[in-house]
Amino acid sequence: MFVKQISVFLENRAGSLAGVTRLLGKNSFDLMSLSIADTTDFGILRGIVADVKGAQALLTEAGYSVKVSDVLCVSVPDHPGALAGVLSILSDHGIGMEYLYSFFRSHGDHALIIIRVDKPEEGMKALAQAGIRMLSQEDLQSV
Amino acid sequence: MECMPREQLRAFQDSRLRDVVRRVYESVPFYRRKMQERGLTPNDIHGVDDIELLPFTEKQDLRDHYPFGMFAVPISEIVRVHASSGTTGKPTVVGYTSGDIDRWTELMARSMYCAGVAKGDIVQVAYGYGLFTGGLGAHYGAERVGAVVVPISGGNTTRQLMLLQDFGATALCCTPSYALNLAEALEHDGVTETKLKVGIFGAEPWTEGMREKIENMLHINALNIYGLSEVMGPGVSMECMMKNGMHIWEDHFLPEIIGPDDKGLPYGSQGDLTFTTLSKHGMPLLRYRTHDLCTLTDELCACGRTHVRMGRIMGRTDDMLIIRGVNVFPSQIEHALLQVAGVEPQYQIMVDRENLLDTMEIHVELSPENMSDTVRELEALERRIANSVAAHALVSAKIKLCQPGSLPRSEGKAKRVIDNRKL
Within 10 A of A25 (CB to CB), how many other CB atoms are there? Predict the structure, then answer.
């Protein structure tokens, strides 16, 4: 099971991140998780919202380049070494990682980590077989 | 020939013009059709005074007849082709007979001699060799005067400097901006003296200020040379030691200055420099519009040469850019962008000059189709675009992705180019 991540292209100039977040906020989209990738020339805002379709429509309408992609939302015990365990399962299966970032909120006594891997289906299977809990898009309603 | 009285030169041009008009009428369907449309036969052209009766030739005409449709001789008579960038994907091709190569060599030798280059000199040719006419043109001319040629071609500054010092070049051929670049590199290395005495610089517009700077840094005479592949290549005109404009070799090229209404302008007026080739056989051209803006003067030069002089190129009458000596049209960039899947033709070209070298940055709007959540994929897209530009426009550019809708749009002609170079 995957969750849907929304990515937005940002130019590297003052106010461009503020613009997107203001637009989402004004329309009551709650960013449950957020990460920014940046290069010298541009940035990519990646985030998780409950209503992905709505957010996509809003941002596209406002002229942004938007992409929705499947990412893993992994629930890991909130103690040292837990994340390393998850990551070694992936690397043991030869699955490469593009990036990861964490949720603002926790899930019971577990932390939530968003992981984007190069082979999403295989990554999900490998983690599921190892008994790692992952959240679906619907699960996000309760976070 | 160079000091021939003007009346005599005119009579010579009259006879050569009659000859070239007859040749293109008989051998180039494009010109025969154009002349027939005007009700002209070669017999109507008696000499230079009748030049305005003849049709113009535009770069687009050469493109429409790509690759060999403008040649006036069978392909078996052609011994060399060169090509320059066209306005879109296809280049503009020119063909030379062995006689053409010989005449070009002679004119480049004349130009070299004009700069004082002779047997005993060592000429470092740092123009690019290949389809571009700069390298081979300078090469043949320097050989013809009996100088030693160092055919190093363009680029690789470290190697240029090493050979410049080790071989003791006395003359340097390259673009003026590259000459400045070499001068600064020498200064940086603490080299205060070289054997250089003269530079033959061209292929891009430059200024008196740049001349002064190059001359002071390298302790040489920096002379301006002009040419374009369509007309022949370098050596269409060359500055003498008076440094007061470039002598157009009028026994081979008939220049005109054309105004915005397509009418010829008198000496001293600024307009579109236009050439009729008087001696070419492979691909003769009638009234070819260079779209370089300049003036002509027939005042006698102190050097004694009678051939008219053209002033510095003041700009273009079209949208062509010259980037590090390479001719670039915005339409070529657009064509290159459209070759990359999902890229839309919303772009802006930013030209600047950093460390004396031209830089080009192309801002391209990122289409939703090409959006990715990874930096890796977006950077790969930038590389694909840069490679396409390098392949189609023969120029390296930095690509900057922009948000959709962020680049200025205007009705009709968008402002595609921002040139921040201060010349």
Answer: 11
CB pairs under 8 A between A and B: 56
- In A, residues 7-46, which contact B (CB 8 Å cutoff)? 7, 9-11, 16, 37, 39, 41-42, 44, 46
Residue B224 and residue B264 in one domain: yes
Q: What token pair was written down for B420? A: 């921040």
Half-sphere exposure of A52 (CA within 13 A, CB side): 22
Which of B368, B378, B401 minimises the CB distance to A66? B368
Q: Which of B318, B337, B356 is the last residue of a domain?
A: B318
CATH topology of domain A71-137: VC0802-like (3.30.2130)
**Which class does domain A3-69 fall in?**
alpha beta
Report yes or no: A61 at the B interface, CB cutoff 8 Å: no
The ipTM estimated for the assembled molecules is 0.88
Nearest CA in chain A to B368: A65
Instruction: Select from B318, B343, B367 the last residue of a domain.
Output: B318
> Block means of pLDDT (10 residues each) for chain B, length 423 residues?
92 97 98 97 97 96 95 98 76 96 98 97 96 96 98 94 97 93 92 96 88 94 96 97 96 97 95 97 98 94 95 88 86 88 87 88 92 94 95 91 81 73 75
Please check whether residues B102 and B168 belong to one and the same domain. yes
List Cα–Cα distances, B282 to A89, B136, B365, in angstroms. Answer: 70, 17, 44
The domain spanning residue B362 has which CATH number?
3.30.300.30
Distance from B347 to chain A by nearest Cα, in Å? 15
Inspect the interface and report whether the beta carbons of A39 and B401 lie closer than 8 Å.
Answer: no
Closest-CA residue to A48 (of A18, A10, A7, A78): A7
Helix or strand run (H / E) with residue B22: helix B6-27
